[in-house]
Design a protein that fits this description.
With about 280 residues, the chain is mostly beta strands. It has strands spanning about 5, 5-10, 10-15, 20-25, 40-45, 55-60, 60, 65-70, 80-85, 95-100, 100-105, 120-125, 130-140, 140-150, 155-160, 170-175, 185, 195-200, 215-220, 230-235, 255, 260-265, 270-275. It has two domains: about 5-140, Immunoglobulin-like (Sandwich); about 140-275, Immunoglobulin-like, CATH 2.60.40.
Length: about 280
Amino acid sequence: MTVTAGRRTPRADCTVGPDGGITFDLDLGRREDEEAPELLLRLRGAKGNGDGSTVRLSLSPLRDGRLRAVLPGSMEPAEGRWDVHLREPCADDDGAVAVEPGIRDLRLLVDRTPGNGRIAVRIPYPTLDGRLAVRCWLRAPHAEAGPVTFDGGGMTVEGTLYGTGLGTDARVEARLPGADGRVLRVPVTGEEGTFAFTLPLDRLAAGAVTAQQLWTLWLIPGTAEGEPAGGVRISRILDDVWDRKKIFVYPGLSTGEGGRATPCYSTDNDLCVRLEPEPAPAS
């Protein structure tokens, strides 16, 4: 921990509780008679502080001299990335300083089984430049991706569906965002909260593939009651991995006509398929 002008750079140990709440413990080397600072969680990319983009958590002293703040499991910050800051009693919000990550105990997030209502996920993580942040998701309903397997030219995905069921006309849509707005629809099967589908990857290419395309995957439950407009994004968020884009790497399959399709995750842990020109053979 670095020291600047006689004051330690704040560092927080984080523990995720059974209800999904997060406990932040800080050792700031303060006297007992000093007024406690405040912990601020700021939604990255938000324009101001008056629209729910700042969460304020009071810090209370512990017997060992540390300070503790708690983000309750019942609180549901907006979906996004929240940077953690410490505001001294004499400073305004602009004077708050970034907090460094300490020990992160995320064991209770592994193999998590939530209820069938609104899914709220919070994962404390270290940013690339060494700061502490919290990744939050809010999903209702939610389609949790599981195993991804391959058979011939198809990609099969199994998963768990929370908050809704599958109707007789349930389907999965692979969508190409942009002006083309192309959609590939395939049937989905499942029972008792599960789903499965097979996407023929060669059908994503319409002729020669000359530039990279990123297809997003959506589950359309096909239920008359409570079906979300636009469908349910297929993602994987119910564990301790806050960014699986570079961690879950799948093989690519040839689509013919010089194209290659590769399942992948976005930085938001949404399941996608990347379609791109087949690499030229090494000479």
